[in-house]
Amino acid sequence: MPKPNKNVLILGIILLLVLIAAYANHFNNGFHFDDSHTVVDNVHIRTLKNIPAFFSDPKMFSADPLHWSLRPVVTTTLAIDYWIAGGLTPFYFQLSTFIWFVLLGVLIFFMYKNLLYKAIDHAWAIYIALAATAWYILHTSNAETINYIIARSDVLSTFCIVASFLIYVAFPAKRKLFLYAIPAVIGVFAKETVLVLIILLFFYILLFEDGLSIPDLFKLKNFKKTGGAITKILPLFFILLAVQIYALSKITGTTGISNPLFPYLLTQTYVWLHYFIAFFLPMNLSADSDWGTITNIFDERIIIGLVFVIILIIAIFKTSRKKETRPIAFGLIWFAAALLPTSVVPLSEITNDHRMFFPFIGLSLSVVTYVGLLLIKMDEKNIRTRRYRTLIITCFILALVLNVYGVQQRNKIWKNEETLWLDVTVKSPLNGRGLMNYGLTQMAKGNYDIADTYFEKATQYLPYYNSLYINIGILKGATGHPAEAEENFKKAVNLSPNTFDSYVYYARYLKQTNRDTAAIAMAEKAVQINPYSVMALQILMGAYNNLGAWDKLQETATKVLAILPNDADAQKFLQAGKNHIGVVIINQPPAHKALTANDYIDLSLKYYNEKNYTKCIEACLQAIKLKPDAAIAYNNMGASYNMLQQWQKGFDACTKALQIDPNNKLAMGNLNWAKSNLNK
User: Fold this and answer.
1) Domains and CATH numbers, the chain
2) Residues 6 or more apart whose Cβ sits within 8 Å of residue 282
3) Start-end of H helices in 496-567
4) Is the pTM of this model over 0.90?
């Protein structure tokens, strides 16, 4: 076995620098999609004290009951990121995922090296390992996983699988200690894919340690070796199965599985081909595809997919026959085995780009090993060696450069919600969720007409999606259409009566329109479904405060403080309940939901009461931008200018308020105050 040399170390450092350069423009990319309920709104990651509970309480994984499951390793890393960042600063979350990715790349290199040394007796084997590692970690498709923070589950579970596999391969004398089982057990608590390790170890033992080809497995004389391989991995199988059953038993969420099994399985054959092609041509990547199941067994895509799977199996059989090509066979087995979990379980999403992350480790090994063996053969036969070698190496480097460029472009797409979902609407125009989410970004900017257009398009593809009607309700409320707002909020509730979000956003709307009693009824239903809904609890506190329901106010504030011990608003409400003296506190909606004109007016009042008059004026300007006829915004702004003794500006703002609403007594008072000081 050749010893590591300085060339490999230098090339490895260069590869690391290239990787950092490729992802340099991603570190400040924001939270997206499921990050909203697993990170942004997940109050449980805000204290490290919850870490032990992460391993037993599925409610701590997400703020949405539909997603309650047990992935404590992921949640623990998110809590650590939150602690280091001192809040929801995306940089630290992105950096954390990237560090795990770099460490994974190191493990992959050593795994490749061990496998190739067992098959290829040539000095170039270590360079093939390094080249395969380079192709994998620089691959454009991986940008989807690295940018999407909650997809860290893929990075962590893959890291654990590779770590266990490497320990098993590199330290055979230590197997009796079961050290290789430790990372795998940890990986189960990151994602439900670790059982694939059993398949990988089974074929590793047979191909590399027993020296069998795949056709040899079907010969009677080799059944004993096959049985021996099964016996070797059986203890690990039972350990992982027990841990996996424990993790699965904790799941209470209901999202994820929503397709009929047989059509889903058929469609996956074509999806496999799609992934295979994407390995070589990673174009048209989409954060949220619009693929649906193919129900016709004679559809040409199904036929092409089945042909591809057959060719894949044949390639595995043929390349497993020779010792030097067994890494190719094993890589193809890895590719297929890694796709099995998402192929046999009928998930709601037919395809997802971050599902390529784990399988491409095998495909990188297969493709680069094939190229490496081709170069070795050319060198041995001296067939125009220099010319062809230069051509192949140039093509390989070009492929890496193009992938680096692709990574940088995908990083730009993942920059914020608007850039991401605009890309989805272009790449996946039939995806109603993508249309809705892009509409949300426009509503947040005050582009209500554009938002309305995209929401309407989304209803064509998602006619029964409660979240869509919640957002339409928010839009109608912000644009002064109360009847339509009510209609859409009620439709959202009727479509999904067992989900908390329909109730909580309807409650927020009712609270904003000063219907506290009705808001309480909706918010209480939300809390019954999700007792950790901070927004619902905040609505209840505000409504109880307004109605003077002091006992209820104390009770609710205590619940909030049990979840968020340092919540300043809850502390004020608790004192208000005890003292029977109401306070004025306005809470912002979550960052991933658009602020309406009323939200900004509420914020302006909050800032005014806190004597932060500059912030009050800023909030009023935002409200006016969204709703030019908001008299109360002009009044609040005028009052703030008066407090800052900017009397002319105060006079102008209050004058505008009275032009809109001549009967506004507050504006009259503030106008007279400004006028009296102007005349001095």
Assistant:
1) 6-411 (no CATH), 597-678 (1.25.40.10)
2) 139, 140, 141, 403, 406
3) 500-512, 516-529, 534-547, 550-563
4) no
